[in-house]
Amino acid sequence: MAKRQSCIAVSFALMASMTIGMADVAGAAQNPCSSIVNESGSEVTCDPIDLEISSGELSLPIPAIGTSVGVAEISSNPSDSGDSMYVANLDGVVTVSDLTSAGVISSGVSACSDSFYALAGYKESDNHAWYFNNAGSGNWIGSGSAVSADLSAANIITNATNNCSIVANPTNRNNYVGLTTLHPQIPIVLGANCASIPTDTVNVHGWVSGLAYTTLARTCWWGIARPGTDELSTADVGFNSARNWFSTLPANCSNAFDMVGVAVHEWGHVYGLDHASSATHPNLTMSSVSAPCTVAQRSLGKGDILGLLALYP
Ligand SMILES: [Zn+2]
What we know:
The protein is mainly beta. It has two domains: 85 residues, no CATH class; 194 residues, Collagenase (Catalytic Domain), CATH 3.40.390. It contains three helices and 18 strands. Strands 1, 2, 5, 6, 7, 9, 10, 12, 13, 14 and 15 form an eleven-stranded mixed beta sheet that branches. It has a three-stranded parallel beta sheet with strand order 11-16-17. The structure holds zinc ion. The site of zinc ion (ZN) has 6 residues, from strand 5 and helix 2.
C-alpha cells in the first residue's frame, strides 16, 4: 500500500465544526504535520494522522482514514465548557466537531417537556457487549454496587425508561458480559486525550484516577467513518474514583453523585447522543453538568428519548 501524503485545507464553520480536506499524494508519512493552519482553503503537504486538534478545552488526535474518535466529559462544575469533541476521517475528509455548553444554569423547562437533543454522528448497530472493571473503586456510599448501577443505567437507555409516560422502544440493545481485569482506555494523566486507535476492541467501564476533580466521568469512543452516520466500534467509560458515589440516595447526602444517573448519561454517549447545554437544557439526562445528591438524571427526558429514536427507530 502506497504511503500517503496529504494536502490539507482547513475551514471553520459555526458551532466549531471544522472540515479538513486531504488529497492523497505519494510520499507522505515522512512529513508529519506539526500543525494545521487555520485558514480556509490553505493546503499543507504533510500527513496529519495523529496530529492533535484542539477545540475548546478538549483535543483529540486525527484518526486514520476511515475511522473516528471522540471524547465526552460530564462535569460537576457548571462553568466547564470543554465537554465533548468528535473527529471523523472519512476517505481523507476530516470533520471536527465539538459542543460547548458553559453558562449559567437556568431552571429550564421540565425534562418531560424539553424536546432538545444533539447527535454525535455515530450509532451502535450491534447488540453492545460490555464489561465492568471494579478495581480502584471510588468512595461508595450506602447499599448497592457500581456494576449493578451501571447495568441499571444501560437498561434505562436501551429500554428508554422514563417518568414522562412516553412509550418508546428503541432498537438498541446491550449485553453485560461480566467483570473484567481490562482497564477502560481512559487516559489517567490529567489533560491527556483519547488515543487515535483503541488498544483493544473490548467495551470496558470502570474507575479512573487522575481525572480533573470536576470531571465526574469520561467516555472515549472509536468508530468506523461512514457517509452519513458513523458506526461505533469501541466505547470505554471511566468514572472518577476521587468522587463520592451512591446508587441509593443517602440520608444527609453531601457532595456525592448518583452512579446510575451519571452512567445513564455516559450510556447516552455510547449510543451516539451528544450533550445538551447545561445552560438551556439542565433537566435532560444529556445535560453536560450533573448536580450532587439528586437522582433526576437517571430518568430520561423527552429530548433524550427523541434522540435515541432518531438513531434507533
Ligand atoms: Zn457527557
